[in-house]
Amino acid sequence: MGDGEILKDTTRSTGRDALKKNVQAAIALAGAIRSTLGPKGLDKLLIDDDGRTLVTNDGVTVLETAKVEHPVAKMVIGASSLQDKIAKDGTTSTVILSSEMLRNAWELVVQGIHPAVIARGFRMAEQKIISEIEKYTTVGNEELFKQAAISALSGKGHESLKQTVSELSLIAGKYVMNKNRKMEKEKIKIISQTGSVVEDSEVVQGLVLAKKRIDLKMPKEIKDGKIILIDGGLERRSFSSDMKLNVTSPGILEQFRMKEREMLLTQVEHLKSLGVDVVACKEGIDDDVKNDLTKSGIQAFRRVAKSDLDLISMSCDATIVNDVLSAKKDSIGTCKSSVNEMLGGLEHWIITGNGCGATIIVRGSTVDIVGEVERCFDDCLGVVGQMYDDDRLLPGGGASYVALARCLRRYAETIPGREQLAVAAFADGLEVIVRVLAENGGLDPIESLLSVVAKQTSENSHNYGLNLFNGEVEDMVSNGVVEPLGIVRQAIIGATEASISILRIDDVLWAKQEVEIPELTE
Ligand code: ADP
Ligand code: MG
């Protein structure tokens, strides 16, 4: 049986043809988000199947929402999603870089260089960058961290929103710093309130829940108390519809209820014997139990979401229990304070433990605005986490990419083989960031790139980049356009990995039909 028969329902493209189509797909993908890059990038309006709309400037959000079918395009989106997961920023850059690397690789293939050689050259370039990139960094201080956080929000909102979000993110980050000085982002809770302005947003040390203690006669505030977290309730179970109860004598139902009540009160007794001051249940609490708890001076909250119980458990070092009666002393946590307070006109429960925890209360006039600000916080906290983890920053505005490209060109000259061409092509690829930033800022891309290169050479400094706010080539560390090392490094690594995997493909087998491939026009 020949190939033809086995692959009857399959369209096949091999070798150069396959590579060309794959490169086209990557370029088309980057083309879709190119215009969002940088502070002057524009927004995209996304409309899903149900007609819901979302306006965003975030590359990975656009790509993940768009229904992209091309498998190679999906590989590039994968690199961008990974970037989002690891570094929280630089997602657009990753896609633009990898498409440019592939475009340059394709030009070499046309000149007769084998893709495997190019892949090898790209790998050499990547290694060189990893060993060199740290030399271009500046150690950040409080002021630069704030600038970097603001830069990360470039294009995402007005000036005072960026100020508020970056300041609060830096404070929240400090609240959840563990002993190893690592920021535990998962311990930051974000809640939202509409009807006010973004500048009124605040950050509170501890966890804030929109909850009131179940009885106002319970203590409003407990200090240095013991807390139990119950993954269930302190209530009678309601009869389920398929449950059978054999009533053999009068009053048996009443007795059953009495027994249940007794059992519940035994549970309260057990809580008291453990010295519990605060009770938080995932489910309800019956009135009898409530009264008993109130009499004993215990503060109780019901219908606390499991995710909140998890956060409290981390912060107060408590184990969530399923069965109250089997709860032991070591399941009980300690809280520094547990208090009911008015925030923004609503009663809230604020709990602080010895383990860290923080809550950002996002305020804004409408649900849409609050949603957008929440996304800004999410991005900003990712960047702040990176900086607290590693305080080295790189100059933005394309400066570090140009500096790395210059370094790679010098390195390429030392390579005798054909890989030399691939390393040079990689260097050209890095420069795409400055070109696209300029393009989006209404400047001439080539001229801007050349001015940055010339300035870096004449001043012998890698800090010179393109400041889009005035169109000048400036020292980006002095003017505060900086970004964490981890973000740029990961963007380059992610883009290289995606490009190399695509270069290695020389045979594409499509089941049934071929997905439409856009023409290579650029
Ligand atoms: P990404 O999804 O890749 O993070 P962004 O749209 O956030 O894309 O743009 C990030 C790029 O914008 C970075 O290269 C950064 O250096 C650059 N940038 C930020 N602020 C400025 C500025 N004032 N001038 C020039 N470039 C800037
Ligand atoms: Mg960004």
Helix content range of the residues, please?
Answer: 40-55%
The total of beta strands comes to 19
Q: Main sheet, how many strands, which sense, barrel?
A: 7 strands, mixed
Summing up helix and strand content along with how strands pair, one would put the structural category as alpha+beta
Task: Summarize the helices and strands and which ones pair or pack.
Blueprint: H1 3-6, E1 10-14, H2 15-33, E2 44-47, E3 53-56, H3 59-65, H4 71-86, H5 91-110, H6 115-132, E4 138-139, H7 142-152, H8 159-175, E5 188-194, E6 202-205, E7 207-209, E8 221-230, H9 252-273, E9 278-281, H10 287-295, E10 299-301, H11 306-316, E11 320-321, E12 333-343, E13 346-353, E14 358-364, H12 367-389, E15 392-395, H13 399-412, H14 419-430, H15 432-440, H16 445-459, E16 464-467, E17 472-475, E18 482-484, H17 485-503, E19 507-511
Parallel strand pairs: 5-14, 8-9, 8-11, 9-10
Antiparallel strand pairs: 1-19, 2-3, 4-15, 6-14, 7-13, 8-12, 12-13, 15-18, 16-17
The structure holds adenosine-5'-diphosphate and magnesium ion.
Summarize the structure.
By secondary structure, this protein is of the alpha+beta class.
Describe this structure in words.
The protein has 522 residues and is of the alpha+beta class. The protein is built from 17 helices and 19 strands. It has helices at residues 3-6, 15-33, 59-65, 71-86, 91-110, 115-132, 142-152, 159-175, 252-273, 287-295, 306-316, 367-389, 399-412, 419-430, 432-440, 445-459, 485-503; strands at 10-14, 44-47, 53-56, 138-139, 188-194, 202-205, 207-209, 221-230, 278-281, 299-301, 320-321, 333-343, 346-353, 358-364, 392-395, 464-467, 472-475, 482-484, 507-511. Strands 7, 8, 9, 10, 11, 12 and 13 form a seven-stranded mixed beta sheet that branches. Strands 4-15-18 form a three-stranded antiparallel beta sheet. Helix 6 crosses helix 14. The radius of gyration is 29 Å and the shape is elongated. The two termini are 43 Å apart. The model has no long low-confidence stretch (mean pLDDT 87). The site of magnesium ion has 2 residues, from loops. Magnesium ion binds next to loops.
